[in-house]
């Protein structure tokens, strides 16, 4: 009798599992059960419709630095299937890829439909069954088989792979099976600051800011920062929101953001400003240009110190210099709430990784039950890393199942 495999969820993790399992085990009867009437819907909207499938960072030790949750768990997983393997896999399956200067990898077509077509066609060619509008509501293991209760009907299967992403319904199913869960919170968001003092600067960005949260001293992120009409955004903010997702949630999204506008080293900057007093005593401070910031931003920062517009370096005094140092290296703004970044978000939380075997992605203490993708407590910063976790996990399951036979 061929073994039956039920894959719950027709997203990236579900499809990649199905294809790799079906290819390695042609005798298996593989079925994808999808709750909605659409397949791969997040793949289609991902990367602004272009699908950022992976990244060029491939060394597992370096790659894991992009995963606030999953860091240790993923190291040996990426040893088996890393970003290079993803690129090879898609190329082998007819998708030509290209790399952007920042290391993100996309299909050359710049269309996520290319990834959709690749995954869908491969499933079809391998004879994977696809059932739409099958929402799993309960799961029970009896007499060596998993009994799957869908809203529409009941089915049974030898092996179950959960690839549903996170939602309340599936968390209830997991709780009934006593699978430990880290309650999910949003990750990858931008910071809201209503009526902030820099509203007139919205659209201005700096390339090398350092950002941190005053109430949480454990993390500083650097990178581009964008001033928006609703608050602060850009890669540095997204990284901070991702690494501190749980701490920020505890603060109810109300906290003080601290900005060092150009990753200034405080001591060197202080020295530089005091040298200006000696070397350029008659120069007006407001017209200083060596700060490396957009002119409008510098003017706004200078004006907010309360220093007189025409003060020159010889008149500024120690107090004035300290005001400048503070505004350039520790600019503080009150954050009240969050917004979604280009509708792109992931959930931090999900199945506690202590309940998962990293070699097989099987759930400990449950026979023939596996989980993969965003349902696990694994998530990453932007850059193609979230899909990579789904591809690598799916590969591990497929390898484990083919070795098991
Ligand atoms: C707008 C947006 C853009 C993104 N862009 C990128 C990007 O460019 N690069 C990147 O790496 N990551 C990106 N991400 C993150 C990435 O999409 C996710 O990490 C990835 O889709 C997770 O895959 P998954 O298969 O685990 O879950 P999902 O893609 O969420 O798929 C789960 C599937 O399971 C189904 N399902 C849920 N519950 C049940 C149930 N009870 N029974 C049956 N089926 C069920 C769902 O309907 C869904 O189809 C983006 C996310 C968003 C929201």
What can you tell me about this protein's structure?
With 405 residues, the protein is an alpha+beta fold. The protein folds into 2 domains: 4-186 and 346-404, FAD/NAD(P)-binding domain (3-Layer(bba) Sandwich); 189-343, no CATH class. Helix content is 36%, strand content 27%. It is built from 13 helices and 22 strands. It has a 7-stranded antiparallel sheet with strand order 17-16-13-14-15-12-18. A 5-stranded parallel sheet has the order 6-2-1-10-22, with helices on one face. A hairpin with a 4-residue loop joins strand 4 and strand 5. The radius of gyration is 25 Å and the shape is elongated. The mean pLDDT is 95.
CATH fold descriptor of the largest domain? FAD/NAD(P)-binding domain
The CATH superfamily of the largest domain is FAD/NAD(P)-binding domain
Poorly predicted residue ranges = none
CA-to-CA gap between the ends?
A: 13 Å
CATH A-level architecture of the largest domain: 3-Layer(bba) Sandwich
- Reading off the top of the CATH hierarchy, the class of the largest domain is best stated as Alpha Beta
The tally of domains stands at 2
From the spread of the alpha carbons, the general shape counts as elongated
- Give me the oligomer status: single chain
